[in-house]
Amino acid sequence: MTLSEVVKQGVLARILNGDFPIGSTLPAAGELAALYACSQTSVQRALGALADEGFITRVRNRGSVVARRPCRRRLCLLASVDQHISGILQAPLTDALSRHGFQVDTIPFGPNPETALAHSRRLRSTGAPIDHLVALGHFWGGMPASEVRKLSAPFRHRVAFDLDPFATVGGHLVTLDHAYAAQEVLDHLVRLGHRRIAVMAGASPEERNFASISFAACARLVEGSEVSVIPHYMSQDWLGGLCRRIRSERITACWALNDRHAQMLIDVLHEDDLEVPRHISVVGRFDTLWSVA
Fold it and tell me: Which pLDDT value is given to residue 31?
């Protein structure tokens, strides 16, 4: 392996581990040369290769900025039978998932479900395992439940913008955010030093939806650790009740699950003389870290 390849693989590994997050600037060429005991020429060759492959972007007066993470997971994107929905969602969704480390393979969907099934089998027979299936829109329209089951069963995580059809066929119910959000949010908050984290877990404990599933995922991730994940429900005097619990239960962070609820909570916290991030960290969507201190 050449020195430039050593530098390239080293930088990719650190991007993948989160040492260089998306949007951050890589160390200067001189620092990387000292880190990998090589010349700045080797570093420049490595950075050129990273730029050519889309992992970094060269920004004037700033340097090399991380643009996306290396692919560490595979995901199948099931195109919608509605071409309008696919046209709107497919490109930005593919881009967003790629930036979060997914290799995205698209399954075309037409009037014959067997076409999608055959394509899915071909994809799963090659390369790394595929855990995630993301469906765009109501692909199941007119599809018998048995066909939905056959298509979705091999995937550990089945993702859709409407959860009801997957809820009828069993298995692990997730949403796009939940597929990789809980671990990233918890990692972020724990790195900030938080050990008591509230999650807005929906209307009530009996509810089964994205919010409750996200809380359950967080609870599983912290089992046996010193970190506590605390559910808060709308039935508990939603935002006002959460502010009181933040004070009385020494909660120092909250995952609001979406940006709208995060901003509403920040506004209420401000009225209650609680500042973000001085007194509490608030996270909205998985890719919107409101507190980065």
Answer: 93
| 97, burial (CB in 10 Å: exposed 0-12, middle 13-18, buried 19+) | buried
CA distance 139 to 187: 34
Q: What is the SS3 assignment for the chain?
A: CCHHHHHHHHHHHHHHHCCCCCCCECCCHHHHHHHCCCCHHHHHHHHHHHHHCCCEEEECCCEEEECCCCCCEEEEEECCCCHHHHHHHHHHHHHHHHHCCEEEEEECCCCCHHHHHHHHHHHHCCCCCEEEEEECCCCCCCCCHHHHHHHHCCCCEEEECCCHHHHCCCCCEECCCCCCHHHHHHHHHHHCCCCEEEEECCCCCCCCCHHHHHHHHHHHHCCCCCCEEEEECHHHCHHHHHHHHHHHCCCCEEECCCHHHHHHHHHHHHHCCCCCCCCCEEECCCCCCCCCC
What tens digit of pLDDT does each residue of 122-165 get?
A: 877 776 677 777 777 554 445 565 666 677 777 776 665 443 33
Residue 176 pLDDT greater than 50, yes or no? no
- For the domain spanning 181-283, the CATH number is 3.40.50.2300
User: For the structural domain made of 3-66, what CATH number should be given?
Assistant: 1.10.10.10
Domain boundaries, the chain: 3-66, 73-174, 181-283
